C-alpha cells in the first residue's frame, strides 16, 4: 500500500531545482510513496505568542505531519547550511510543548545544487537537527546531487539512466525505511 510522505522543499522559487528533484523522486517511487508538500513559505517567523491564536498555516503543517507516514526534506545549500525557512518549520513542528510533530517520524534528506558538493553540508546540518527533534533519520544511502540540466526533462522525468538508477535506489530505500519504522 502506498505510504504518504510530508515533503519539505527548502527553496521557495517556482523554478527550484530542488522541487524538480522532489518531483523526479516521487515519479521514481512508482506509487510506493505519495508526496504532500508542506507550504512552509507561508509560515510566520516562529513566535511563542502566536500560540494564543495559532495561524492556520501552522495548524495545517502540524495536521499534515500527523497524517504522514514519513518525511522527506529536499534542500538547497545556502551559505554552507540549509535555508532558514526549513529551520522555522522545524521549530513550529516541535511546539506546543508536549506535541512534537517530528517525534518518531521516519525521515530522509536529500538536496541538490549546481555546485560540486551537491548541498552536502546543508544535508549534514539538517540530519543533525532532525535527529534532535526526534525524527528517525535514514542515514544511508546518502544523496548529494550535483544538478546537471541535461539529466532531466522539462516534465521532471530523469533522462540520464545512471542518475535515474541512483535516485530510484534512494527513494526505494526511503519507502523501505518508512515501512520498517512507520
Ligand atoms: C546559494 N548557493 C549555494 N550553493 C552551494 O552549493 N553552497 C552554498 O553554500 C550556496 N550558498 C548559497 C546562498 C544563497 C543565499 C543562495 C541564494 C544560493 C546556490 C544554490 O545552491 C543554488 O542557487 C540552487 O539552485 C538553489 O536551489 P533551488 O532554488 O534551485 O532549489
Automatic annotation (TrEMBL):
Pfam families: FMN_red (PF03358)
SUPFAM superfamilies: Flavoproteins (SSF52218)
Signal peptide annotation: none
InterPro entries documented for this protein: Flavoprotein-like_sf, FMN_Rdtase-like_dom, NAD(P)H-dep_reductase
Gene Ontology CC annotations of this record: cytosol
Organism superkingdom: Bacteria
Domain NADPH-dependent FMN reductase-like intervals: 5-145
GO MF assignments: FMN binding; oxidoreductase activity
Protein name as it appears in the record: NADPH-dependent oxidoreductase
Amino acid at each position: 500500500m502506498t505510504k504518504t510522505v510530508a515533503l519539505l522543499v527548502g527553496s521557495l522559487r517556482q523554478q527550484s531545482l530542488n522541487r524538480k528533484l522532489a518531483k523526479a523522486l516521487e515519479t521514481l517511487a512508482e506509487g510506493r510513496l505519495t508526496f504532500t508538500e508542506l507550504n512552509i513559505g507561508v509560515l510566520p517567523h516562529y513566535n511563542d505568542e502566536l500560540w494564543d491564536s495559532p495561524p492556520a498555516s501552522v495548524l495545517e503543517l502540524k495536521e499534515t505531519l500527523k497524517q504522514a507516514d514519513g518525511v522527506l526534506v529536499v534542500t538547497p545549500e545556502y551559505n554552507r547550511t540549509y535555508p532558514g525557512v526549513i529551520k522555522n518549520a522545524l521549530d513550529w513542528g516541535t511546539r506546543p510543548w508536549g506535541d512534537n510533530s517530528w517525534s518518531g517520524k521516519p525521515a530522509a534528506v536529500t538536496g541538490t545544487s549546481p555546485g560540486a558538493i551537491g548541498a552536502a553540508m546543508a544535508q549534514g546540518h539538517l540530519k543533525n537537527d532532525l535527529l534532535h527533534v526526534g525524527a528517525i533519520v535514514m542515514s544511508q544511502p546518502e544523496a548529494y546531487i550535483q544538478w546537471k540540466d541535461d539529466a532531466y526533462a522539462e516534465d521532471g522525468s530523469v533522462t540520464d539512466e545512471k542518475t535515474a538508477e541512483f535516485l530510484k535506489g534512494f527513494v526505494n530505500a526511503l519507502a523501505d525505511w518508512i515501512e520498517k519504522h512507520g
